[in-house]
Amino acid sequence: MALKRKSARPLEAIEADLLLLLLRERYGYDFSGYGRASLLRRLRQLVEIYQAGSLVELLPALLRDEQVAQMAINMLSVPVSEFFRDPPVWKYLREQVMPELDSFPRINVWQVGCGYGQESYSLAILLHECGLAYKARMITTDINADLLRVARRGRWPADQFAQWRANYLAAGGSACFDDYFVGNDHAGNETMAIRAESLQAMEFVEHNLVTDDAFLETQLLICRNVLIYFGAALQARALDLFERSLQRGGFLVLGSAESILGRDDTWAPLQAELRIFRKTMARAK
């Protein structure tokens, strides 16, 4: 007897669901909320890289080969990144959080999920302009070694520079944004490179929130648009990690679609709409 089709969904969409289920159940990464068009485009690239005939042909390798799985996770976890993205967040940090940070004798900053580095250098510029760079140590991390290399290099295509300049000004920038960069022609493409000498040094470190522990006692921890890739259990683990890392009175900044999972006894909202919190105390175990 011939089988009847139960669903009108394209076969590729069903295969993508199986692949995402495997990544979630085997490795703990939940990409189910990721934009579908972009997700499918990146999955097709993965098929081409491994010269597979379809997404489903990748499943055995993803299940058993952690290097293949890491490649998939890297391709799917490249975040959208730009300088001073969501200017109201940066304006609030400038006007409300930085003066509070100045009360600490030393400032340790942990920025999780560096992307291509634009947010990392945005934070460095902010510390510099608020006069805190001299006493700040900044560590920026990502699970993706390729992204870390790009971020460490500090060079980007110039085609988005006008938008980044507008973001900076909307975020309360107090200097000439262009002065932080030098333009050049790199391999036939116009790029903008950060003038690193005008900012404090940053440490770029490979770190996995799923398996690695806290870095250091921090006073400011920024993790925007990373937890959205995690299931509930891994989100809880990451928040436990942040709790151990942040000093009491320290600040946590999350992405616009992320939450503290009801931990009001640990995190006091400073600006709930902007997802900016302050650590109050450790939770009772």
Automatic annotation (TrEMBL):
Keywords for this protein: Methyltransferase, Transferase
Origin: domain of life: Bacteria
One biological process term in Gene Ontology: methylation
Keyword Transferase among UniProt keywords: yes
Record gene name: cheR_3
Class of enzymatic activity (EC top level): transferase
InterPro entries linked: Bact_Chemotaxis_MeTrfase, CheR_C, CheR_MeTrfase, CheR_N, SAM-dependent_MTases_sf
Location of the CheR-type methyltransferase domain: 22-285
EC code(s) of this entry: 2.1.1.80
One family name in Pfam for this protein: CheR_N
GO MF terms held by the record: protein-glutamate O-methyltransferase activity
Protein name (record): Chemotaxis protein methyltransferase
